[in-house]
Every structure is written in structure tokens, then in C-alpha cells.
# Entry
Amino acid sequence: MKSPTSHLVLAPDAVIDLQTHTLYSDGVWTPEQLIDYASQEQFGLIAITDHDRVDTVASVQRLATEKRLPVLPAVEMTTTWRGEMTDVLCYGFDPEQNELNALAQDVLYRQQANTRAVFEYLRQKGYTFSQPSAPSADEAESTAELTAILEKPSAQHPHALVALLKKYGYGTGEKSPGKILGEAGVDFATSEIAAVVEAAHQGGAVCLIAHPGRGDGFPRFDAPMLDQLREDVPIDGLEAYYPLHTPEQTTLYLDYAQRHRLLVSSGSDSHGPENAPIKYRAELSRDLLERVGIQVK
# Structure
């Protein structure tokens, strides 16, 4: 299919945001709401990078065409690098035919399997997920709760299990919902970073490390760690501009990218109106945009 970014030309001061999320993963925006907001705010380009959702990119592209807002085909893949969760932003693949979709679907299947196992463990331990009623109704209500979680995007499953425990009054005592689920074996399904990078490159896409300085369950990359990462996988760049990065971190990543000829991305990580997209200038990510066929001049 033809992308809305085909033959796109942006001015250096055109505003862009290359990391946003909708309810297709763990955001609260609908795609239409996010695109309408970006249009109203006169964005020249956004990327909707829903976690491990390659299957929705084509429909987002069609909506973007209808709304006349350029939306770059993109996804944020949940990966592991040396045992640590490391998100990877992939840009510029074919929305309908690409090698990333199989990896994303495998993440969904494995997350669903983990959710089923955790749910069964909790029930065996005596946790009930129904209101007091007849036994047959209890079973049906409990099954409905599990089904509702399984129908959600993979990125929402662990959070939905926390919400389920709270809904039925669990986790208010000595054990928090997180501790209860940890004992039950809850996990975030991930892909190997090398497999994601290889699949993206096969389809002509580029891969950048998302929020490399964020921490909070992710590695906080410094220069030596980035050297090690690049020894392991041919990563294309870094999300240097990110709202939780300190000025020192941003400078570090920009300097590192310049020294090693890496691409630079600019993203807000917007998940909804409470943390709206940020108006980054297109020139900040000129090399990345031009790599995926968008001219900045």
C-alpha cells in the first residue's frame, strides 16, 4: 500500500513526534483521536508506535490518508538485550508485508499463555474473581474476566491482572498486587533484540533504541553500554530526544550518535491527552527522516 509519507517534504521547523501510543497497545488515545489532535495542532508528521502491534499499522495508514495527516509506519517492539528489557523503535517498513509481524504475533501468543497460567495459579491458590453467587455463575464470571484480559493487546495484560486483583479486593494487605503476581509468575513477553533488528532490516526498516536514558525497569545506557550493544546488534540509532532524559543525557546521546553516524529520533511517548505529543522540530531527526524517504529542506 502507498504510505501517507511517500514523497513527503518537511520544512526544518515542521513539528513531528516519533513515539506515540493508542489503545491498540497501552495508550488511551483511539487512533482517530490521536490523528485528529495532531492535525489540529498542525503536526507535519507523527509516528504511532504501538507496542508489538504490526497488524494494525495498515489500518492506521488508511485512517491517516483519510485525515490527510502523514503518519510514519512504525512499531515499538518489546525486546531483551543481555537479559534486560529494551524497547526498540522500528520505522519505515511496509505496513502490509513485513517480517516484524510474525515476531509481534508470537509475543501476543506467549503473553496470552502467561496470562492463562497466572490466572490458573491464582485460582488454585484460592483467589476468586466473581461476586458471591451460585457456583455455576461464579465459574462463568471468572471465565469472563479471563477472556476479557486475553482480548486485550499484549502490553496491557500484566496491568489488567493488577486491576483484576484490585477489583476483587486483593493486594491491600501485606502482599501488593505486584508481589502476588510476581509469585504467580507474571511476565512481559519479549522478542530477542537481534531477531527484531534482523527482521526490520530485511524489510528495509531502521531500528532505534527507545528512551535509552529512562531507567525505570529499562537499562540506562551510557557510552560503554552502547558500545556493547552495537557489538551485539547492528542498531541504527537512538531516541535522543525524550521528555524524561536529562539535558546531560540528551547531549551524551547526540554526541554518541554523531561520532558513530547513528540516526536520532524525537519522541514524547504520549499515551493520552494527559501527556500530549511534543512538538519537536523535524530538523532534529533529519537523518532518520531522510533514511525513510522523507525530505527535510
Q: What stands out?
A: The chain has a mean pLDDT of 95. The chain has ten helices and twelve strands. The longest helix spans residues 100-124.
